[in-house]
Design a protein that fits this description.
CATH topology of the largest domain: Butyryl-CoA Dehydrogenase, subunit A, domain 3
Number of helices: 23
CATH architecture of the largest domain: Up-down Bundle
CATH superfamily of the largest domain: Butyryl-CoA Dehydrogenase, subunit A, domain 3
Mean pLDDT: 89
Distance between the termini: 39 Å
Low-confidence stretches: 444-455, 457-490
Number of domains: 3
Length: 640
């Protein structure tokens, strides 16, 4: 390995320019805007005051015009989906309650009206939603059905005589739960319900249902409850909604993908109920992508605080020195924070690619092939899971790295822990999302497999596996890869060879996927569920290693875009740390499957140690490159 330049030779601004990427202008504008605004930390506020503050800030945000970015220019928007998601990511450097409430208002409610509705809805609602004249909710999740959206129990039955839909909650398990904006501020809800017309169910559709009148009282037939105090995000007024035969006009149906005529006749441009359902949900994928980006911002904030603290906090003396050692100079402390920092960079670049892909697809309107859309949804699911699990783990690590000071609420980290904890289960439970990723790897989304019902899963497992999936890795290729992975040349040089690193990730993914296929090959309609259930660990691993390979590729591509030699060298070494710390954490698999010898596994541990030592002088540069506005880092422990 060639040695890195000194820390003073690398300008954090060069890295910032690379990190800011395609939407750098929006990031710069938000930083400048925030610099002139007093950040109101919610520390010490009770729930009601916190909610009031977040609503006040939401109105301030609306006045900037930035929430308009993701909407159609025809209605006063900016036609910039990628810019909209980027602005949400930047918002997540501050109070995450504000980010979530903004996401509910403009991302979920407004996004549903724009993407699932038609002109009549756009003309009537979009400007009011953008300007915050109409506060909205996104009422999908039910008490008894969270991830299994396709089998929600709320019904919307069409009454042709009145030309109205009757929205009904059949029992308590069907109440809409955890609905942001519902408990206090929401006036209109996008309600997902089973559409029934002419006695026939047509699957889940979305309806616009008023839940409060102009005075703020619950609308007739609507019961509203407060979910109460949560572990975090208490600036968001999550509530429960119950509908007792609430009537809305026929035009309340968001009818982009399915419509009901005055006489009750149903029509849709998509014939398959399953395909229609997943097409509708697919259009709303930007919420999931925004959560991944926001988790990344919270992770960067925590790491910046922890690394700055690690450079000033001293503990214990060297035998030959009277001055105590800063804790970031300890290898154990470096190992806590620097591999997490490397992964944060890697996930940032993967997120940037994902946002760009979404922007291109949604800017193209309906002119996108189904395969490309499914690939986007799979990647969004995988990165959301990876980014939010990483946030949960890293923020906890950052808290521990700051000792007792990190446990004080005034030092920000406890609120970050509490507020991001739910990220792993909202906008899709992470375990379910990784199954979706694996499903995308195991099939070509054939037209007759478009839902996740047990029957469809059985049919898929029994009939849709192709021998080509199982035979992709021949015995000869396995032998070649084992030879490549064994120490045939100097171990240190081999470990830092980027081609070897990429092959290791690719080979792991392919082997795991082939293993899943082999385990499920014998599935029949009678044993499919049991077989699939027993293979859950294998399925989840397939999803995880696939995402890790995509993240590595994004990191490598970003390094190639860097023109500054010093910054590029630093990123190369940071990428090495991402790869080798990943292999180190999974070295049992690599050794069990003959991809690593014991000698090379030990060499990887040593290499991670060396990389941490080499990157330690650059830790401050790497976190400063995130360019987080200083007011969001105003922890008293960094000032004393």
């Amino acid at each position: 390995m060639t040695s890195l330049p000194t820390a003073t030779e690398i300008d954090p601004g060069t890295l910032t320019a690379l990190l800011d990427g395609r939407w750098a202008k929006i990031r710069r504008e938000i930083r400048e805007q925030v610099a002139d605004t007093r950040f109101r930390e919610p520390y010490g506020l009770d729930v009601e005051r916190h909610r009031e503050q977040v609503l006040e800030q939401l109105h301030e945000l609306a006045r900037t015009g930035r929430p308009r970015l993701g909407f159609s220019a025809e209605y006063g928007g900016g036609d910039d989906v990628g810019g909209s998601i980027t602005s949400f990511e930047m918002l997540a450097f501050g109070d995450l309650s504000l980010m979530v409430k903004a996401g509910v208002q403009w991302g979920l409610c407004g996004g549903a009206v724009q993407l699932l509705g038609t002109r009549r809805h756009h003309e009537r609602y979009l400007r009011r939603i953008m300007d915050l004249d109409l506060l909205g909710c996104f009422a999908m999740t039910e008490t008894g059905h969270g991830s299994d959206v396709q089998h929600l129990r709320t019904t919307a039955t069409y009454d042709p005589a009145a030309q109205e839909f009757v929205i009904t909650t059949p029992d308590e398990s069907a109440r809409k739960d955890y609905i942001g904006n519902a408990a206090r501020d929401g006036q209109l809800a996008v309600v997902f319900a089973q559409l029934i017309t002419a006695g026939e169910g047509r699957g889940v559709h979305a309806f616009l249902v008023p839940i409060r009148d102009e005075e703020g009282a619950a609308a007739p037939g609507v019961r509203i409850e407060d979910c109460g105090v949560k572990a975090g995000l208490n600036g968001v007024d999550n509530g429960r909604l119950v509908f007792d035969h609430v009537r809305v006009p026929r035009t309340a149906l968001l009818n982009q993908y399915g419509d009901v005529a005055e006489d009750g006749t149903y029509s849709s441009p998509i014939e398959s109920d399953g395909k229609r359902f997943f097409t509708m949900l697919g259009t709303l994928v930007r919420g999931r992508i925004s959560v991944a980006g926001s988790a990344g911002s919270a992770t960067k904030r925590a790491l910046t605080i922890a690394i700055r603290y690690g450079e000033r906090r001293r503990q214990f003396q060297r035998p030959d020195d009277s001055e105590e050692v800063v804790i970031l100079d300890y290898r154990a402390h470096q190992r806590q924070l620097l591999p997490a920092l490397a992964k944060t960079y890697a996930l940032h670049f993967a997120q940037e690619e994902l946002v760009a892909a979404l922007h291109e697809i949604q800017s193209a309107g309906g002119d996108v092939d189904d395969r490309r859309q499914r690939e986007l949804e799979s990647r969004a699911a995988g990165l959301k899971a990876a980014a939010t699990w990483h946030a949960t783990e890293t923020i906890q690590t950052a808290r521990e790295a700051c000792g007792g000071a990190g446990y004080l609420a005034e030092n920000i980290l406890p609120a970050l822990k509490a507020d991001t904890d739910v990220f792993t289960t909202f906008e899709g439970d992470n375990t379910v999302l990784l199954q979706l990723v694996a499903r995308g790897l195991l099939t070509q989304y054939r037209d007759d497999f478009q839902d996740l019902s047990p029957l469809a899963t059985m049919r898929f497992l029994a009939e849709q596996f192709m021998d080509a999936v199982i035979e992709r890795t021949s015995a000869r290729k396995v032998v070649e890869r084992i030879v490549e992975a064994s120490p045939g040349r100097d171990d240190e040089e081999a470990l830092f060879d980027r081609a070897w690193q990429c092959r290791a990730f690719e080979d792991r993914e392919e082997h795991v996927l082939d293993g899943v296929a082999r385990r499920l090959r014998q599935a029949t309609p009678e044993n499919a569920f049991e077989l699939f259930n027993e293979a859950q660990d294998h399925v989840l691993r397939a999803g995880r290693v696939h995402v890790e390979r995509l993240v590595l590729e994004a990191f490598v591509a970003a390094i190639d875009r860097c023109d500054d030699p010093a910054a590029k060298g630093l990123l190369e070494r940071l990428c090495d740390l991402y790869v080798l710390s990943n292999i180190e954490a999974d070295r049992a698999w690599f050794m069990e499957h003959g991809r690593l010898t014991g000698t090379r596994a030990k060499a990887i541990v040593a290499a991670v140690n060396d990389l941490c030592g080499e990157l330690r002088p650059h830790a401050r540069t790497l976190v400063d490159a995130f360019a987080i506005p200083e007011q969001f880092l105003a922890a008293p422990m960094l000032e004393s």
